[in-house]
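Hi L.,

You mentioned the student needs an example of a multi-chain input paired with its predicted structure. This one should do, with 809 residues in total across all chains.
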Amino acid sequence: MSLRILEIGVYGYNGELSSVRLNPSGLSIITGASKTGKSSLIDIIEYCFGREQCHVSDGIIRQHVSWFGILLDRGDGRVFIARRNPKPPKTRNPDVYYAVGADLRMPEAVAWEPNLGVEDIETLLTSSVGIAENQTTVPEGQTRKPISANIRHALMFCIQDQDEIDSRKILFHRQGEPYLPQTIKDVLPYFLGAIDEDLLRHKVQLDVERKELRKLQKAADERKQLADLSTARTEDIFREAQSVGLLPPGQPPTQDVALSSLRAINPLIQEVPVPADSTEPIAVLRRERSALRRELTAVKERLRQIRSVEDVAGSFAREADEQRGRLATLGLIAKGDVETCALCGSGDVHVPSVAEMNETLSGIDEQLSQVRREVPRLQEAQSELVVRQNGIEDSLKRNQGQMDALAKQDEAFRTERDGQLRLARIMGRIAYFLETLPPPPIALVSVDEVEAARKRVAALEKLVDPENTAERLTSILNLIGEFMTRDSEKLDLEHSGSRLRLDIRQLAVIADTLDGPVPLFRMGSGENWVGYHVLAHLALHRWFRQKHRPVPAFLFFDQPSQAHYPAEQDRDGDISVLPDADREAVFKLFKLMFDVAEELSPHFQLIVTDHADLRDQWFADAVVARWRGDGLVPERWIDARR
Amino acid sequence: MNPAWSERSIEDQSLFNPVFCALLLRTACRGYQEGDGAARALPLAHCFLILPIVLNAAMRSALPTLRTRMTTWITSHPEHIGDFADRSRELVYATREAIQLGCAQEWLAIAGDGVRPGPHRFRPDPPRLATDTVDIRDCYEAARFVGRWLPKNDRQSTILSMLGVTT
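Structure written out for the whole complex:
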């Protein structure tokens, strides 16, 4: 979405509005004398775009203005943002008013309450200009934190104030402030489109895939480890198990099979075989004990099932309670059914009838009562089972007592007990052996799967590779250089005709001449500096617009003609007083801006403030304000307060 | 158009029933008038925001206090706004139905381009029933809060646009 400025204004303490309306696309020129507020427009834009401090210089504007306001077109509607002028010497004020609407106009007077926090402006504009979630990449070995490009950064490519446009050292807005050159270098690749919009998502995905790969590899390693475990140890344990009859006799099978047999050993069912005729009473007791234990297991399982049924029924009852609670409001209906529409009076309404709704309520009531009946029955069954469980446990105890008693008498039983002890010891050894085995892999991992995961990771790594970005960036900068070179033929500059390019490391325009590269700061004279600034920014915006990049679709030049027509020479904007060469240069500069703005219309807006006021028709048509005498702050506001 | 009663699921019938929804709207309208001498009507467009906010458990439990401006809260909680437009579209008919029923019962009244509480009196208001669950009371509380919280001086389109509902 392209963000353009429709109107910039100030509200006086008398509540009145004084504003300048801009052409929604193409060139808009504000021409006028010094100190009429032309340059302050930039500070007002920045302040309304959420800059923390108000940089409008102390003077008439700061003294006579209560609110600054700006009306924007964001493609799908209009946005109005107003910020209260902080009373000098203060430089910040928390009051913001924000409004959105399709047909929004600049309010004629201050009739609003602040409704937004200052930092929220940034969030809102960042998303309305279409800046996707992004993060700059910091090359390895550098310590700064990655940042995400936002509207504040985008604005650095949309504005050239009067000290910047003719600077030999500074190409971008606010480049002179500490740390900002690095920031510009970091965010420019994103705005140019060299960084993949999906980079963040790919990075997250890469993390996930890497984790998956590690998991697969670990599983594969474990499997290998398991295979490497000494088969001898497994065999030893297997033989021990055989020796007490836990496993059938014979040659130990392969390790996998041996392990699963060991795991399958069930201590309850395994009883040491005892000759049937030796001690009949003990055998009977032992059979009884096995039966009791099996029964106990069954009872416990049944109890568990019933309890889970109870849980489910409980949550259903809660849910049904909520539904009944909301429907119970039906009882409040006093006036019968709705037969006409309250909004339009039409009889064609489809509000459900009370009878219908009541039917649902009674349905739920019925379900609820069934649930309630069900629960006690479950409880009854439960208590029955608990009684049974206790009975079985008592029987088991009695059985054990009888066996103990018999054991005291029976010598043969002692052997059996020895056997039990040995069995228990071997069971313990088996359990320990199985426990100390590495856990079996959750799923079998094939070599193919690991390989496929590795390939996915490699592909993603390539996607987030900074070198990829660098390549794309170089190609984009080449194309932008092409635009600059082409447009430069329309101006008379020192290195016109040479290949021009934008160097993002030096943040400078460079002309490749036969004698080697010449950066902007080594070129002489203000007219070159202004010329190359204009060329560079027009080329950048040509790219931004062609590629629908999320940079606001306006470009603001403050006094591009200053090298030829400085403020002190201003004669009501008339440039005929200038020498021919200077007049020609000013004409060419404006004509270039006009042509590019026309070419990129209707999606681009070029705003220029200047002293110069050319007589040509196309120039006059582009003038949206002539500030001679009255400026942004009307004389009568000032007079009224004297 | 809302489906006929018999074609709705039992959950839709009970959880979004027009009587309960109408009471929520009435509560929100009363909230909107609180602390306001002019006792103004809740703008019709805002009426359609009440149910999607109040009946969504996640959003309801994330609501701040009156000290936080609605506009500010919206910008800092994109996770609740993401699917808000879809949810509010789904509840448009429920809201409309609730307004119709509410007006017929004189719980609500259409006034100008907004909705006010109707002449019917409840004591207490919103009514309390023995069957009320914690959820139900939370919904009434949230409805009153949202009513008080909705900005009164802003353009309606500003709030709608920030919530992702088209202007």
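You could point out the following to them. Chain A touches chain B through 49 residues (CB under 8 Å). Chain A has 18 helices and 13 strands.

Best wishes,
N.
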